[in-house]
Amino acid sequence: MAPATTIPLSRPSYDEHEIARIREALGGRTSGDGPFGQRVERRLEAQLGVRRVLLTTSCTHALELALMALGLVDGQEVIVPSFTFVSTANAVLRAGGRLVLADIEEETLGLDPVDVEARITDRTAALLPVHYAGIAAQMGPLLEIAQRRNLRVVEDAAQGIGASWRGLPLGALGDAGCLSFHDTKNLSCGEGGALALRDEATARRAEIIREKGTNRSAFLRGEVDKYTWVAEGSSYIMSDVLAAILDAQLDKQAEIASRRGGIAARYRDALSDWARTEGVRLCAEPKDRALNHHIFYLRVPEPAAQVRCLAALKRQGVGAAFHYVPLHSSPFGRALGLPQEGFSRTERVAATLVRLPIHGEMSDADVERVIHAVRASLA
Length: 379
Ligand SMILES: Cc1ncc(COP(=O)(O)O)c(C=O)c1O
Known about the structure:
Strand order of the largest sheet: 1-9-8-5-4-2-3
Order of helices and strands: HHEHEHEHEHEEEEEHHHHEEEHHHEH
Distance between the termini: 18 Å
Shape: globular
Bound molecules: pyridoxal-5'-phosphate
Radius of gyration: 21 Å
Helix content: 40-55%
Number of strands: 13
């Protein structure tokens, strides 16, 4: 018999703190660049150690905005992993670039530097590594390639808040970093994102594009006496009501991180013998990286085991899930005529990865229920 409730894969941690901030925001100006928006931008700048953070309506929009502000020229190529969410690739197309997909590497499930190097042409302008599961991609070799080949680096750090590589926060490693505050993420405001920039000139271009092509941000800072149309732009700015939620979430960041870390540690402890016996690999913990435990995944030995494992967990009321359909073989990837060869690791990982529930709202009993169900899932 199926259990009464399903443990969801993710769930945001909201309570009276977010409600109080929303009330406060509703008493003031609720559009973008308001008091909460500005406060959260300063808090994120301090946390990431970057020159400017611009809050956006989503990470999808932060990615588009990054490529536009960095001046991607029509037809220039951007290298993106095939194992990622659609937004990483859409951003390249929306900004007028040409999408080039590359395979991932085994340790981090991020862009494979060897494959990246093989796909660089004289039209390549940027690399767009994804920090899958909040685990930094192989940034040493990727940054070295970018420097040697004079390429920009835009990090898709949608899953990366709170995680770091060699002590440096994800999102602060390249020319631009894009974060997500979607409700599945470690910190959330429903839908939201941020663009982190190390360079003031790029930030100035980005704030104009974000504000419908106007210099409204400079006007709000008192730098010009009226604002007007100064460039092509769109509307990518976060409402102050959502920024108020994010402000409350930042207050709880350490608490949320500690709960997620505790769950991951318990999974690792309770599942390692089982994993060894079944030929399952537990979520990577590569050296030089502090994890934010955004995702805890298993890699089962073969595709049939993924189907079996997910079905068994579903029967037990555990909201486990696979992850991305590789972009190269997706319907739109095929329609774009993207190459179909050379993605063996992406295909293998997509067919064998299982994500377990992990979020700040799980009780200890929930965690034990997941462990019990996982141990029986491949029998
Ligand atoms: C790797 C990656 N990139 C981009 C996004 C898009 O983020 P958002 O929903 O904030 O637009 C996501 C969302 O899940 C993601 O996982």
